[in-house]
Design goal:
mainly alpha, 56% helix
Length: 93
Amino acid sequence: VLAPRVSSIARNELVEWLKLRKEYEEAVKERCKDGKEDIKAVLKSIKNSFDDDLLETLCEVNWGVAKDDLTDEFLLEQIHAITDSYQNRAVPE
């Protein structure tokens, strides 16, 4: 099972990535449930799912954080900030 890649921060692509990531995590959990493989060793990190050039640019331009200091939690927060932003806007009457 291959982890989905993040190659764009377009909202629609990130929404699709979140769906695929959930399916990927469920497939890995299923694969590791017999205990023969460690899920932490098999599960690809979110950081490693990003296109390297995109991640470098986002770190320098958008987030002001060193790539080495990134955590999966931080990346998920940033992804959800993009995907949730349209959900919370009021629809004009």
